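Section handout 9: paired folding examples.
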Amino acid sequence: MVHAPAGDLPTLLLLHGREGSEHDLPGMAAAVAPGWGVIAPRGPEHEGDGFAWFRHRTIGVPVIESLDLRMQETAEVAAGLARDAEVRLPMVAVGFSNGGMMAGALGCARPDLVGAVALLSSSYPLPAHVYALGGMSGMPVIALSGGADPFHTIRVHQAGVDAYRSAGARVAEHVDASGGHGVTRENADLLGEWLLALTQT
């Protein structure tokens, strides 16, 4: 799914969660960032009734070979879609759950393609060799989580935030105490404010 931005607004690279599809995030994106461009590809791995970005050993723990391969493939797909849509780079990668891990990995590997990252219920720590790629240095990142999330706990949220900061990212974070594994209204509003601030810096 591809929509060009209005005027000179940036473009969002939307990466859905595990067992999701490219149709999951554009509605939210239109609400929090009206007029922004949208590039929403589909994950390459079949997972349940939907798709994922890479195979995993357990929630938040990727199969390294799968992550490395799919990270490269996803970067190529996203770059091609951006080129065809004639949108300016870098984009802002917004990922939910499994998609947030891919969003962060793309920021580490391809800061020319992804210049900021929003982690929605997805600040799982990435493997050390991904952070070592260096793209996170100085990159704006926001980590938005739910305090009642059984899959992405507060402990995991904080470990991921610490890992991104150690890699040099400029991390803003918020935990909606009553939120589960999803995007609450409170966190969506904060995402919109953060995205707006990116256009003013």
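Moving on to protein 2 of 2.
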Amino acid sequence: MAASLIVRHRVADFDAWKKVFDSMFEIRKAHGWTQATVYRDAQDPNMVTIVNRMKDLDGAKRYGGSKELKDGMAKAGVLGAPEILMLDQADDRAY
């Protein structure tokens, strides 16, 4: 089964952050990403949660330690350390 990486962090400006996030599509894909869904907090539009789906967590770990990610987060205006959850999928259902 697939894996998920959920990341939550505050950004200085959502629109500026989103441009950098979108520019890193190929880098994430090279690390095994298959999907990413971006959410904005209903009360604070600069609090962002990203649900990333990937083939396995090994690629997520490599990406998490990469210079590309570190540089991208700085350029995108990420404020503070992100909250991160690494999850292996146990079940999936549609209703």
